[in-house]
Amino acid sequence: GEALEVNQEVNCVTDFIHGCEDQLKKLKKQKEKGLLYGIPISIKDHINCKGHISSGGMVKFLGQVKEEDSVVVQVLKHQGGIPFVKTNIPQTMINYDCSNLIFGQTLNPLNPQKSPGGSSGGEGALIAGGGSILGIGSDVAGSIRLPSSFCGLCGLKPTGNRIRPFVLTVTAMLGPMARDVDSLALCMKALLCQEMFQLDPTVPPIPFDEQVRLRGAPM
């Protein structure tokens, strides 16, 4: 409900992910509760979700419905998280604004006259507006860090190849965005699990180190 309200104000959601209630029912039956149990999570547009498109803000991808969840979405679900919306990005994503010809311009909820930044601008706007508590963005040259800064949030671009979205000549990283650092740490801890290492053998099988975080060293 809150995501809908925020979306009406700032135009940050591109799609609502179906099957959330079914997934919650399935989770309730499981004996082991994951680290993200029951947490609704917003997902940046280009990250594949089964039964949905990943437009990249480009018309040519509108007919291509994805048949499988990406690894990161599979791991989020394994940990009890519930991906519930996909969020807006600039066309091609190589931009620090957040606008495309399909979904239009996303506004900054702190000041609608301003941009939320990009390319994870829909994530920034939705979380800052109170429509999501945890989101997954991606970053090559600032795409998590810029919208986090513009929208007054916390964001993390992990070390190269820590959580891989897709193969690029430049290393792009998926990473969490939220309102506080503890949420980022919880998300990283949840993602860097055995399930992730099995699904994506290119990810070094190194769990999240809570002690390093508490010492204030880079995550």
UniProtKB/TrEMBL annotation:
Name of the protein described by the UniProt record: VDHAP protein
Any one GO biological process: fatty acid catabolic process
Domain Amidase: 5-205
Lineage: Eukaryota, Metazoa, Chordata, Craniata, Vertebrata
TM annotation in the entry: none
Organism listed in the record: Illadopsis cleaveri (blackcap illadopsis)
Single GO MF descriptor: fatty acid amide hydrolase activity
Domain of life (superkingdom): Eukaryota
Keywords: Hydrolase
Pfam family, one: Amidase
Family in the record: Belongs to the amidase family.
